[in-house]
Amino acid sequence: MRAVAVVGASLAGVATARALRAQGFEGRVSVVGDEARTPYDRPPLSKDFLLGKTEAADLALLDSDDEAELAIDWRLGTRAVGLHPSRRAVALADGGEITADAVVVATGAAPNRLPRTAGLAGVHVLRSLEDAAALRLELAAGSPRVAVIGGSFIGAEIASSCRALGLETTVVEAAEAPLAGVLGTEVARACAELHGDNGVRLLCGVPVSGLRGEGRVTGVELADGTLVPAEVVVMGVGARPNTGWLAGSGLELDDGVVCDDGLITAFGSVAAVGDVARLRGPQGASARAEHWTSASEQPAVAVANLLAGATLHEYRRTPYFWSDQYGVRLQFAGRTRPGDEARVVEGSIAERSFAAVYERDGAVVAAAAMNRPRPFTRLRRGLSRAAVPA
Amino acid sequence: MIYACHLEDLPQGESLRVMADVPIAVLHADDGIYAVDDTCTHQNASLSDGWLEGCFIECPLHEAAFDLRTGAPTCLPAKRPVRTHSVTVSDDGCVYVHAAVTESVAEGAA
User: What sections of the sequence does the record tag as coiled-coil (chain B) (predicted)?
Assistant: First the structure.
């Protein structure tokens, strides 16, 4: 194998390049990224970056030593617009084309937007550094009232940051309780209560009917007629995998790029990693994770399989994520199903300091913790040993 | 020299945090007791809450691992080493950390 094309220049793309070199690949590694800047880490964007505690330069995923070691053929500031798997060619928006012996799809996901919100000033999503810089600028102008649409982790982190900036902040969540599907009702309630504890208003159970304002947003209208006045609105309403450019490629697309549990697609020389990868296990069940940890860990497995020319390794790590909000660190590992409830094994939920397990049929299937990293680490280790693919 | 604990209170596999000019993690690994700066060099997390295996400590937040003998990170996301500090155990089982002063203080004193 002499050349590998990596499409996507964020964490998963960078981890792919690192894995290729770490596993002895000495050929050409081309990395395509639609942003003009070199890759950066995203988790701080909703936290320290919004607060002005971290700057763009601090977020770089590669330093000059890495650059020298990895010798990447960068194709930044250009978008991949097509893939021809049979000849492993990636078409670029600038008219160029990269051909390689293997292609790794690492194009991530794009934030959802509510309909009829385009072109209205003051309305934001938060995914890229550019998004975060634009939002930070607006939060610093005067003392805007902020409405965050969506009460999941990104929404909660943004609300927490806005509150830390001293801004009047409201979180609007369509479901009866945010995060209950992931965390179970009791842990989800503890997370939801963090908003009120810290002076942020949380409105649950009513969907948004639209935004108010002409030219610039003035508020969020809910289906029950409530109006939440806001000069800045942030939408944290999920993301969809960036697979549009793969239409017509012949790759199987199903809310992501379908690959086996070793990250390899039906075209043996094309892999998918990170947010965009939908892993199908041997029983046909499939899963896609939008977690930093998956984007960081999957590439090493994908690369090992690509270099071997066959799926010899499965990605078996337990899904893991963390969230920092209102000075509380939440950690979660595993997968719950509706009805799975947490059993506290250390600390207490009321004190916002606990470690808990979720059990099903006598086995621990997930673990959660607030401000209890030590027992959580041990619980997560236990889960990893029992992990099954997809 | 900082008194950390009595050896009896730090069984193999366990770790604790002591305060010097910065927090220090004291860890009882398979082959002895080590001390390193407690805060992961990648992001704010406490290594004494991490996973101790062999002579490596893994950060509880993002799984960066450090070699306790050298302080060097063995994998991403950490890139910078943690400082290491020498440890003495007295005859009566008291564990002392010889905390190095931070570089900025050392420069100021020079």
Answer: none
Among B60, B77, B79, beta carbon nearest to A373:
B60
Closest residue, chain B, to A293 (C-alpha): B62
| CA atoms of B72 and A118, how far apart (whole Å) | 48
Q: How far is B58 from chain A (nearest CA, A)?
A: 9
Pairs of residues, one from chain A and one from chain B, whose beta carbons lie less than 8 Å apart: 32
Helical segments of chain B, H only: 103-109
Domain regions of chain A by residue span: 3-110+239-308, 113-235, 327-386
For residue B107, pLDDT over 70 is answered with: no
pLDDT in tens, A201-225: 999 999 999 999 999 999 999 999 9
Closest-CA distance of chain B to residue A189, Å: 23
Burial of A15 (0-12, 13-18, 19+ CB in 10 A): buried
The CATH number of A113-235 is 3.50.50.60
Tell me the pLDDT tens digit for each residue of A119-174: 899 999 999 999 999 999 999 999 999 999 999 999 999 999 999 999 999 999 99
Q: Whole-angstrom Cα distance, residue A71 to residue A145?
A: 46
Q: Which of B46, B60, B62 sits opposite A376 (nearest CB)?
A: B60
Per residue in B14-43, pLDDT (tens digit) is 999 999 889 999 999 999 999 999 999 988
B56 touches chain A (CB under 8 A): no
- Four-CA torsion A151, A191, B23, B38, nearest 10 degrees: -70
Nearest beta carbon to residue A322 from set B48, B61, B79: B61
- Could you tell me the CATH superfamily of domain A3-110+239-308? FAD/NAD(P)-binding domain (3.50.50.60)
Per residue in B38-91, pLDDT (tens digit) is 999 988 899 999 999 899 999 998 888 999 999 999 877 888 999 999 999 999
A377 with B60: Cβ contact below 8 A:
yes
Helix (H, G, I), strand (E, B) or coil at A263: coil
Question: ipTM of this complex > 0.90?
Answer: no
Q: B60 touching A, CB under 8 A?
A: yes
What fold does the segment set A327-386 form as a domain? Enolase-like; domain 1 (3.30.390)
Q: Which CATH number fits domain B2-98: 2.102.10.10, 3.40.190.10, 2.60.40.10, 3.10.20.310?
A: 2.102.10.10
The CA–CA distances, whole Å, from A373 to A273, A322, B60 equal: 27, 10, 6
